[in-house]
Write a structure and sequence with these properties.
Elements lengths: L1 E9 L2 E6 L5 E6 L5 H11 L16 E8 L6 H6 L7 E8 L5 E5 L2 E3 L1 H11 E4 L10 H11 L3 H46 L8 H12 L1 H17 L4 H14 L3 H31 L4 H21 L4 H67 L6 E13 L2 E10 L7 E2 H4 L2 H16 L6 E5 L7 H14 L5 E4 L3 H4 L4 E9 L4 E8 L1 H13 L5 H11 L1
Parallel strand pairs: 3-13, 3-14, 8-12, 12-13
Antiparallel strand pairs: 1-2, 1-4, 4-5, 5-6, 6-7, 9-10, 10-11, 14-15
Length: about 550
């Protein structure tokens, strides 16, 4: 609840302190005295945007501070979410500098305006005439209905599952597009893969192919040269090897000491090496025989490699292997994505089944509760002077899942007997809407813990006995929560536990707004003035006393 509101240098307010109590608080004052200014100041600490024009004195900053007792509101998780220190007595503060800069604080910690708005929504519910338009909003009506039907937890579970379903459906669309892209490329990638696997790239090396091709291409010339070299080394009588053997035998017969023996060994070593060379030359000579078929095979392989390298813009076989692996990865990804798509479709089917089950249960609970709710609302409408008015909650089941399940809900209203019920926000008058919203808020307070509720002239369009009953209804509501009502009606004002009076004073240079708490004869006099004017009669004063008693 709001324990204290401090306002300094805001519009017509130079300095003001308001200390509402628990229960029912009344705020009255003449038109233009500044009641709306109070709401504007309160709105700033609830997250409304600031305007430099709000400064009363443009040479100093505006400070608005609200002290709230929040121990019963279960807001620790919200404080943790925004990394704020939790305190059972929490202070919200806004500052507006002469330069127009605005700053927001929660328990002296600087916060964003959105953070302040998030917390403010949990602390104060300001109901003004334009909020009657909520009766045309499905979200508001559905939340109200589910709260009274005891379906809040079920609705929360449904929303959680439906949110998951929506996320999965969006992911499905993205994945389907991705799968289609892969499928469009798959035929081409498979064609490229077939081209790249026609040749065993892993068994080939550019150097080996080039070497073998050069040998086969010059086979005759190489074979002739090898044959000649072999002949010179070992085939003729005067072959190099034969001559070396002869020299070795000659030196072997000499007894010339260590030096000649070493030379003999070296010559023998040369002869052995030449034997090996001659043997290898002979083998190469045999292999270098022309092989037109193999040469054509190599030409074909090299042509294919060249075409593939040109096509894929790579320089060698290693580059083609990398291309092949990349294409293979794309083909594998297609299979993986299609498998993921199947799993996602199965997950969506399970979520749809879960949501449908929860939605069906929600729909049943809404139907079961709606008749009793309508009865209560219509009884209260009669109590507030609308005996022939009738609210109807029309609930039908849709074929598809939506944010609130499969229920389509309409609040229909007829103010007179025999009238055709129509959407309430279209046909109900201002006074009827005000009474209906008060009834709905009162019923809501019986089922959930609400923050401080402020009614800004909810009594529009009513008077007399009906105003008195609206006051009694707000008084009952204040037994469960802090209620503040800005009103022009003495019947409602008389029901307040605490009564604040807003007034203006002027001097030669300025006008300022002030607030004072009324007690005793002062309160009687203000009520009497509300009944009969600035100079109340004795009858008005007696009437005011009667209202207070």
């Amino acid at each position: 609840m709001l324990k204290e509101l401090k306002v300094d240098n805001y519009v017509l307010i130079q300095s003001l302190r308001l200390n509402p109590t628990n229960g029912f608080n009344i705020i009255t004052g003449e038109t233009g005295a500044g009641k709306s200014i109070l709401l504007g100041a309160l709105g700033l600490i609830l997250g409304d945007r600031a305007d430099i024009k709000a400064l009363s004195n443009t040479s100093t900053k505006c400070i608005i501070e609200g002290v709230f007792s929040i121990s019963s509101l279960q807001l620790k998780s919200l404080f943790e979410q925004h990394d704020l220190d939790y305190a059972e007595e929490t202070i919200l503060r806004r500052e507006i500098t002469p330069s127009g800069k605005s700053r927001a604080f929660i328990n002296d910690t600087p916060v964003s305006l959105q953070t302040m708005k998030s917390l403010g929504a949990q602390l104060v519910d300001i109901h003004s005439q334009h909020q009657n338009l909520q009766l045309g909003h499905t979200a508001y009506l559905m939340d109200w209905l589910d709260t009274l039907a005891g379906s809040t937890d079920l609705q929360r579970r449904y929303k959680t599952q439906f949110s998951k379903l929506q996320d999965e459906r969006h992911r499905l669309i993205d994945l389907q597009n991705k799968v289609q892209e892969h499928r469009n490329e798959q035929d081409y990638n498979e064609f490229l893969m077939n081209e790249l696997t026609e040749i065993d790239l892993d068994a080939l090396k550019d150097e080996d192919i080039e070497t073998e091709h050069k040998i086969l291409e010059n086979a005759e010339e190489i074979g002739l040269a090898l044959s000649q070299a072999t002949q010179e080394l070992e085939s003729s009588e005067s072959s190099v090897i034969e001559q070396i053997r002869f020299i070795g035998q000659s030196l072997g017969k000499l007894d010339g000491g260590e030096v000649l023996r070493e030379l003999h060994e070296r010559i023998n070593s040369v002869r052995y090496e030449l034997d090996d060379i001659a043997s290898e030359l002979s083998m190469l000579s045999d292999k270098s025989a022309p092989d037109p078929e193999r040469l054509q095979e190599l030409n074909d392989i090299m042509a294919k490699l060249y075409n593939l390298q040109t096509k894929h813009k790579v320089l060698d076989i290693e580059g083609l292997i990398e291309v092949r692996e990349s294409i293979d990865q794309k083909l594998s990804e297609t299979l993986d994505i299609e498998h993921e798509l199947q799993n996602l479709e199965a997950s969506i089917a399970n979520l749809e089944a879960t949501c449908s089950e929860l939605a069906s249960e929600l729909h049943t609970q809404r139907l079961d509760a709606s008749s009793n709710i309508v009865t209560e609302v219509n009884q209260d409408l009669a109590y507030l002077g609308l005996p022939n008015a009738e609210l109807t909650i029309k609930i039908s089941e849709s074929k598809s899942l939506g944010q609130y399940g499969m229920s389509e809900v309409e609040f229909l209203f007829a103010s007179n007997k025999g009238s055709t019920p129509q959407p309430v926000h279209i046909v109900a008058s201002g006074g009827e809407l005000s009474r209906l919203m008060l009834i709905m808020k009162s019923l809501l307070a019986q089922h959930k813990l609400l923050p401080t509720m402020i009614f800004d002239e909810i009594d529009t369009g009513v008077s007399g006995e009906i105003a008195l009953k609206m006051g009694e209804m707000m008084e009952r509501l204040s037994e469960k929560m802090q209620v503040m009502s800005i009103t022009h009606l003495p019947q409602i004002a008389s029901k307040g536990k605490t009564h604040f009076y807003v007034y203006k004073q002027s001097d030669d240079t300025s006008t300022a707004t002030f607030v004072k708490e009324l007690q005793g004869s002062d309160r009687v006099m203000v009520l009497a003035q509300m009944l009969s004017g600035d100079n109340p009669t004795e009858g008005a004063i007696a009437n005011a006393k009667e209202l207070l008693n």
